[in-house]
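W.,

You were right to be curious about this one. When I first looked at the sequence I had no strong expectations either way, so I just let the prediction run and decided to look at it fresh. Below is the sequence, 207 residues in total, followed by the output.
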Amino acid sequence: MDELLEKSEGLNSEFSRIFDYGPFDDSKRVTSSWIMCMVAVEHASSLRQLAMCGNYTSAICIMRAQFEALTRAIWLFYAASDEKVENTFSTLSELSQNADQKPNNADMIKAIDGKAPEQAVLMLKEFRDVQWAALNSFVHGGIHALQRHGSGYPIQLIEQIIKSSNGLLTMTTMMAAILTGNAVITKDIIRIQHRHKECLPEFLTNQ
């Protein structure tokens, strides 16, 4: 697993250069999506650090936050109403906090269907279908957290979690590349994927 984490850091290092370009304009829609991409990247980094420390339960909880940040980044750019985008820049208060509760993750994925790139929507749907129930169990102290933390984590499971997080990181960086407005950068993402296929899930390495 140490080798996988080391290779994952290499993947992240290459992807991080994409963020040096910045978004193609300073509109609230583009800026909000860009910021959520950076939040998702931070979660991916935290997951790797937690895994490195052996804090696997917390690492898995972080992956749900990573997935939700990525989903929101895509939704903000492709499907959020102007009012919703405007609300993200409201002064933080109880009122603005409550207004931010909707749509939920499932509704955001429905909203981007037909608007965001088809492959991205399919990947989000597949991830949610496969992972969501278990991730909720970990986050809310359910049976997954209790049994896994009590009996120990198989190395194969942790490696799968790290690769899944790397897959979400790849999608996040692709979203950021779109936000740069530079088509050449999006092609770079594909090349980076192939160079680091050992630390990515199969559905990405087969593209």
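Here's what jumped out at me. Residues 40 and 66 are 5 Å apart (CA to CA). And, maybe more interesting for your project: The first helix runs from residue 2 to 16.

Coffee later to discuss?

I.
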